[in-house]
């Protein structure tokens, strides 16, 4: 078999890319290790920046999102027993769109496979990449039903297989460089069957550790609790979780978080990672396969979409018009936004974690950053711009 493009991974990056290629009549196949039911239910992110939503809209991929997503206009910091709101939409004219990742993935799979007639193979095993440094690469995988190994010849491979995929490690070690930053903390990521307790994202900055509240849908809310890295979720029974959330999110006039059954409870070791360049030969990496940002500033899914927009346009330009410019500039164009978001995440992480670090100097400077956000309109404006990721016209 032969396809111009093989896309590995059906997350937000791979599916958006597949849709862009199909719309330009570029043939491709998407290979996904999990089943369709699994990827349509996997809970993860939920916050999209306005430029990303407009990028999806321009490509005919935001119909359901625009009809169903909540639009958020501000976020709230709770510290020292007070609550302070930062009205980012007023400051930038831009919104956050709250739309659970499984809903977006469901929309993208439907559009790719059922509407645009794209080829997608679920449950593939043992994906391997071959001859990436030549102009005749190929991808092989083991078929889930027969166990037989199939080979697909192609012109390009898009590595969109997330943080634990195989494509990041495919280039020879001396051809890529991995930069990693470890925060030295864990976050207990929780999903509660409970309505949101606030109409916006809430960041609880507390000496006992950070706590976060993020709406997902009217029935489900995501919470985070800072914990030691590598902590065991079993150390966090229902009663302890809700007691810590009540304590760390407490502020004058703030109602306690609405309690509900915990349907997800896992510990994330907070680290960031960037692979550069994001291309080797005929392989182009996109999304979490190339870079990870801990969910501190809700950036990961947005970056995955940014890469997919650029890669989709670059591959289409090359395969339909012979234009090499997009592919040549792909890695540098992606990495510019990636590093900008990494720097913002690192800045915000220090605000969240400094007060519980046990180091009075870090606690003092973290609180100074927080106070500056509310004392200085310039600082508030800069924060809002970075939190929203900039102009909807800028990129994507
Ligand atoms: P993925 O979504 O990981 O998709 C990769 C796909 O490849 C998967 O379907 C996987 O099954 C498949 N795959 C893996 N290996 C193989 C293989 N060998 N062969 C074939 N297929 C394979 N981001 C935000 O922007 N906002 C948030 O609020 C936010 N919150 C988050 C909360 C949590 C708890 C977590 C874990 C992440 C969060 N993120 C958030 C990050 C966001 O979920 C990711 O950045 C996003 O999923 C990246 O998309 P992707 O398409 O690059 O990778």
Automatic annotation (TrEMBL):
GO terms for molecular function: FAD binding; oxidoreductase activity, acting on paired donors, with incorporation or reduction of molecular oxygen, NAD(P)H as one donor, and incorporation of one atom of oxygen. Keywords: FAD, Flavoprotein, Monooxygenase, Oxidoreductase. Pfam families: FAD_binding_3. Residues 3-344 form the FAD-binding domain. Gene3D superfamilies: D-Amino Acid Oxidase, subunit A, domain 2, FAD/NAD(P)-binding domain. It comes from the Bacteria. The keyword Transcription regulation does not apply. InterPro entries: FAD-bd, FAD/NAD-bd_sf, RIFMO-like. This is 4-hydroxybenzoate 3-monooxygenase. It comes from Streptomyces glaucescens.
């Amino acid at each position: 078999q032969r396809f111009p493009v093989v896309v590995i991974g059906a997350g937000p990056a791979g599916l958006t890319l597949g849709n862009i290629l199909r719309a330009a009549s570029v043939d491709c196949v998407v290979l996904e290790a999990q089943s369709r039911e699994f990827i349509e239910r996997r809970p993860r992110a939920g916050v999209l920046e306005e430029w990303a939503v407009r990028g999806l809209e321009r490509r005919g991929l935001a119909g359901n999102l625009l009809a169903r997503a909540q639009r958020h206009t501000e976020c709230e910091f709770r510290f020292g027993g007070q609550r302070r709101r930062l009205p980012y939409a007023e400051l930038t004219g831009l919104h956050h769109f709250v739309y659970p990742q499984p809903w977006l993935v469901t929309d993208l799979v439907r559009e790719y496979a059922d509407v645009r007639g794209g080829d997608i193979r679920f449950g593939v095993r043992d994906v391997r990449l071959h001859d990436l440094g030549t102009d005749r690469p190929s991808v092989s995988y083991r078929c889930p039903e027969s166990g037989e190994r199939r080979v697909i010849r192609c012109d390009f491979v898009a590595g969109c297989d997330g943080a634990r995929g195989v494509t990041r490690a495919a280039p020879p070690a001396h051809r890529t460089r991995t930069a990693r930053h470890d925060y030295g903390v864990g976050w207990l990521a929780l999903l509660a069957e409970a309505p949101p307790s606030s109409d916006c994202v809430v960041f609880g900055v507390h000496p006992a550790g950070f706590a976060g509240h993020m709406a997902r849908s009217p029935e489900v809310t995501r919470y985070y609790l800072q914990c030691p890295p590598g902590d065991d979720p079993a150390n966090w029974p229902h009663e302890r979780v809700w007691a810590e959330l009540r304590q760390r999110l407490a502020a004058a006039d703030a109602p306690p978080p609405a309690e509900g059954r915990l349907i997800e409870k896992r510990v994330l070791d907070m680290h960031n990672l960037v692979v550069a360049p994001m291309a080797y030969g005929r392989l182009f990496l996109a999304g979490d396969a190339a870079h990870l940002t801990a969910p501190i500033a809700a950036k990961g899914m947005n970056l995955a979409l940014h890469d997919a927009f650029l890669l989709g346009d670059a591959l289409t330009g090359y395969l339909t018009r012979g234009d090499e410019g997009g592919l040549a500039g792909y890695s540098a164009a992606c990495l510019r936004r990636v590093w900008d978001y990494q720097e913002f995440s690192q800045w915000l992480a220090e605000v969240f974690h400094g007060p519980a670090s046990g180091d009075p100097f870090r606690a003092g400077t973290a609180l100074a950053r927080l106070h500056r956000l509310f004392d200085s309109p310039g600082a508030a404006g800069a924060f809002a711009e970075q939190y929203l990721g900039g102009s909807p016209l800028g990129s994507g």
